[in-house]
Amino acid sequence: MRRIIFSLVLASVAFLSADAATITVVVDSVRHQRVTGFGAAACWGLMAPIEDVNIIKLLYGEDSPVGLNIMRMEISPNLIGNVTVPWDTPYDWHGYLPVVKEAKARGAIIFGTPWSPPGEYKTNGTPQGGNSEAQGYQRGELKASSYSSFFPWLNTFLAYMKKNDAAVDIVSLQNEPDWWVDYSGCLYTPQQLHDLVKKYASRLDRKTYNVRLMNAEPLGFNPEYSDIMLDDPETAKHIDIIAGHIYGHEPLGNMAKAAKKALAQGKEVWMTEHSVNPRGDADGTVDLPTWHEEILFAEEVNECLLAGGSAYVYWYMLAHWSFVGSGDKTIQPGNDYGKLLRRGYVMSHFSKNLPGSTRLDTKASVIVGTNSAFQTSAYIKGDSLIVMAIDTTANAHKLRVHLPYEVTSGEWILSTEEAVCRRSDIEMTEPAKVVMLDLPARSINTYIFKINRVESGVDEIKSDCEMKPVDDALYDMQGRRMNSGASLRQGIYIKNGKKIYIK
Questions:
Q1: Measured distance CA(328)–CA(142) in Å, rounded
Q2: Assign residue 266 a region: left if phi > 0, alpha if psi is -120 to 50, beta otherwise?
Q3: pLDDT value of position 19
Q4: Are 391 and 438 in contact (CB under 8 A)?
Q5: Under DSSP, is residue 247 helix (H, G, I), strand (E, B) or coil?
Q6: pLDDT at 456
Q7: CATH topology of domain 2-32+359-471
Q8: What local confidence, expressed as pLDDT, does residue 276 receive?
Q9: Hey, what CATH topology would domain 36-355 get?
């Protein structure tokens, strides 16, 4: 570990080099959403579940290089847990048991998403969406007569997973209800989902399975799907998490619109699927992502947090454009199976440091927006102030950071094209609220400062956010939800936004 002494900004900044532009970031004490965590879908290739638990060990838990704490899985369209009919094999519930168990053992939050309810429940009689000539272009929708069966079906899934020591923490209503597909899918209008929840969501056995309900996950984070739920108190009371995907849309657009109303009601907002894929070459081979594409990925995660997101869940965790190499030999060298790829290290800037934190308000002396040349965000977590800074330009900068509380020291995590996740100590000659930092060209930076708690009086500072607590659950300091009835270690936990100590 390198050791670097950063200068304090006192009366003058005359010592700065003339060719190094300075960006000023002001971090305010105003608090926004709590960050739950980061994750990916445990599937690959036509939704087949990952069978290798070593992939999970590489990505999940405090001792992993990446530190993911959320896992997404498909709720396959079956009526029982072990099915042998050709259409479903091997995409049944049992296929996910090994990876879910391993992730749970590493503290992960598990949530399941139906791509389709059982074919028997649908207008086209099949789990497929119906959008192909072979399928007769029959729109696959939930039959009116099957609305009453939907949540009991989810209970069956939850019972199966719990019985097999793989309890699921969250269930979603539907993957991309606004996207008519030829693969597994089901179409819903916002009104149809509203009616489903209002009339029948009470049938979800929350108490037995200690489960939360996520709204459907529209393709472009269409706020119509969440607004209709939140505008009706009878449906809003059933929904814990508002979610969506950001394909074809700017994260600070639709997602921010959906989040505004959701956060005001104390709901969490999750981005639950997207991928940032590299371009294919003319000869048919595909390259691993460039460093520029990795920076764009980091920007996207940051933008989702700025839009009000409590969680960011990537698409497949096993792919050349993801966290772990798939071993596909048509891809340029470096896609070795089971190898932690550069994108995994980029994700670790967020996933190793932010779960359990609360986002703070920031203002910068340059324009910060979607795909801007510079991005920043800031968070408070216990005794730590965390500042993220992403520079996409070819020029190095100086970063002047105004902090809401005095800090005494810290750590700098730096990723560039040359090397990822290099760590350096930040030592200071005296406590300060203003620090000057290096911001290298084309870099991803995480600065973690130690708060001078005695001088700052952080314990007396209350959140300016009007969010209500989501539930009475316990969370550890990494933002992981603890199972009801679980044996808890001695230590500090979060409940209703407050720290408690368990002996």
A1: 37
A2: left
A3: 43
A4: no
A5: coil
A6: 58
A7: Immunoglobulin-like (2.60.40)
A8: 83
A9: TIM Barrel (3.20.20)
pLDDT-derived band at 427, boundaries 50, 70, 90: confident
Please give the single-letter amino acid code of residue 306. L
CA distance 360 to 375: 14
User: Across residues 357-369, what is the average pLDDT?
Assistant: 92
Residue 366 token pair: 């340059």
Nearest 5°: the CA angle 159, 160, 161 is 95
Question: Residue 251 is which amino acid?
Answer: P
* pLDDT at position 484: 47
Question: Which tokens sit at 397?
Answer: 């900068």
CA 326 to CA 323: how far, in whole Å? 9
Query: What is the phi/psi pair of residue 382, to 5°?
Result: 60, -120
Task: Identify which of 275, 265, 231 has the alpha carbon closest to the alpha carbon of residue 72.
Answer: 275
Q: Pairing state of beta strands 48-49 and 397-415?
A: unpaired
Q: 284 CB contacts (<8 Å, ≥6 apart)?
A: 330
C-alpha 487: how far from chain center: 26
Helix or strand (DSSP H, E) at 195: helix 190-200
Residue 226 in contact with residue 245, Cβ under 8 Å?
no
Find, among 348, 347, 324, the residue nearest to 337 by Cα. 324
Q: Which whole number is the average pLDDT over 327-355? A: 94
Q: Which whole number is the average pLDDT over 365-370?
A: 83
Helices (H) and strands (E) in the chain, counts: 11, 21
Residue in the block written with tokens 């849309």: 249
Residues of CATH 2.60.40.1180 domain(s) within the chain?
2-32+359-471
The predicted pLDDT at position 347 comes to: 98
- Do 277 and 269 contact (CB within 8 A), yes or no? no
Specify the length of the chain in residues: 503
Distance separating alpha carbons of residues 349 and 353, to the nearest angstrom: 7
Asked whether residue 458 carries a pLDDT value surpassing 70, the answer given is no
62, 378, 410 from 353: Cα distances, Å: 10, 11, 13
Task: Give, for 410, the enclosing helix (H) or strand (E).
Answer: strand 397-415
- DSSP string over 125-182: SSSB---STTTTT---BB-GGGHHHHHHHHHHHHHHHHHTT---SEEES-B-TT---S
DSSP letter at 252 equals I
For residue 198, the SS3 value is helix
Measured CA to CA, the distance from residue 297 to residue 281 in angstroms comes to: 20
- Return d(Cα 5, Cα 427) in angstroms, integer: 5
- Spatial contact of 314 and 39, defined as CB atoms under 8 Å apart: yes
Chain region(s) in the chain for CATH 3.20.20.80:
36-355
